[in-house]
Structure formats: C-alpha cells, structure tokens
Amino acid sequence: MRRRREKVEITGEAEQIVSFRLGKETFGVKVAQVREIGKVQDITRIPRMPDFIEGVMNLRGQITTVVDLRKRFNIAPEDGQLRSAQSRIIVAEIGGNQLGLIVDAVEDVMRVPKQSITEPPKNLITAVGVNGLNGICTLPTKLIMMLDMDRIMGEDELMKIMQNEREQKAISTG
Fold first, then answer.
1. Partners of residue 156 on adjacent β-strands
2. N or C end of the chain: smaller count of CB under 10 Å?
3. What strands lie across the sheet with 105-113, from one edge to the other?
4. pTM of the model
C-alpha cells in the first residue's frame, strides 16, 4: 500500500514533524523531540503501574519505559485490535528519561510551514484535559494535533517511572 504524501507549499520558516495515528486521529511531534522510531519489541510488564504504562524494554542496554499513547489519551482502538503490523514505538527523551511511546502507525516525516501551526483552543484543553497538546497543524486535507513530548507525562508520573527504572536497573545488574 503506497502512502500518498501531503503536498504542502512552504513559504517562510518551516517545522519538521513526525505524524502518526492513534485510532482515527492524526498527531504530530517535532522531529527534534524524537530519538528514533522502531517496531514494537518485547515488553516486560511491571506490576502496580497505570494501565497506559505497558512496561519496560531493553533498548541497546538502556532500560526504557514504554507508554501506550492510545491508552494514555483514552482513544479506543479503530478495529478492536490492540496492535497491528503498523504499530511503532517512538523513542523520545522526556524529562531526562528515555520513553518509548507506542502509536498505531507512523504516517510521515514532513516539513510544514510554521504559520500552519496554531495554538489549540483553551476550552478544548480544559474540557478534554489532553496533556501535551500544544498546537494544531492545519493542512489542506487534514488537521494534525501537535504534541509536546515534554508535557505528555505529569511530574508525578515521571517520578514514578524514574523510580521504576532505577529498580529495574538494580534487578538487572545485581
């Protein structure tokens, strides 16, 4: 299946983004916030974690916490399946920690005009409570909800993840 690339005329400054799908919705993040994108690997479940934290994985010798973004944002699976062959992990540095974020599919890496990204309506953020939504990119055929990776997780959640990673590292080395 060939993907059709979005044709976007760029005048002035541009932002390079990675777009991905969660359910039927398209989200995007700045390329600068992404370390790598890979296939979903073996994930070890950790007890007593919120349901959106899938567990941890060993990524080139570093214990990495894995978060399912669809669960994090309470988005139902499009076809009832939890994962498909297109599911990917976007690895990002968040709050000084490396996190793997499971998405349904990575769509594209593209350059968009900076002026196409506007602030989301304030009432949307308060009503929905979506952490990390920091803009909406308007393209000719779709809207992309822009996320700030540093704001996807709350401070208390990051502290719990850091504690968990320290414990997992101590178990694996000792």
1. none
2. N
3. 105-113, 14-22, 25-30, 143-147, 133-138, 117-118
4. 0.78
Q: How many Å is the Cα radius of gyration of the chain? A: 17
Per-residue CA distances from 172 to 40, 96, 163 (Å): 21, 21, 14
Pick from 111, 24, 124, 112: nearest CA to 75: 24
DSSP-derived pairing of the beta strands 62-68 and 97-103: parallel
Residue of 78, 3, 72, 86 whose CA lies nearest to 40: 86
Residue in this structure with the two tokens 């060939």, named with its chain if needed: 2
Beta 143-147 vs 25-30: how paired, if at all? parallel
How far apart CA 165 and CA 173 sit, in angstroms, is 12
- The predicted pLDDT at position 2 comes to 46
* Mean per-residue pLDDT, 37-46: 90
Question: CA angle, 97 as apex, 94 and 101 as ends, to 5°?
Answer: 60
Dist. CA 74–CA 121, nearest whole Å: 20
Q: Residue 151 above 80 pLDDT?
A: no
Neighbours of 141 (CB within 10 A): 8
Residue 9 has pLDDT above 80, yes or no: no
